[in-house]
Amino acid sequence: MYFCRRQANQSVHVMASNSDFVQYIADQCSGAGDISVKKMFGDYGIYCDGKIFGLICDDQFFVKPTKAGERMLRTVEYRPPYEGAKDYFYIDDVDDRDYLSMLVRETCKELPMPKKKKR
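Above: the chain's sequence. Below: its structure in token form.
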């Protein structure tokens, strides 16, 4: 599936994430806690126990950078998940379930709880 993002009078064709890939990443991280995904602007935010810890964009997995995560990563590579975004850890090795679950668990320990929505 392709869609078009417009920026500064130019078209950029971007491939949206495949739902099978999104589910695979969620399953791979499930040892860390209650994993959920939410569609956001054509791609996905991924959450553990209510904390957003990463993004899935264009069939690529990104994790918010933390000190614990950096210590655990086999290869530290920073990339923006989309144009104009801050750098996240780019996770290329998505097939080791135990590794991803531990990375997510340790990353989430350093992330703040989400702010409660005002009503």
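The longest strand covers residues 51-57.
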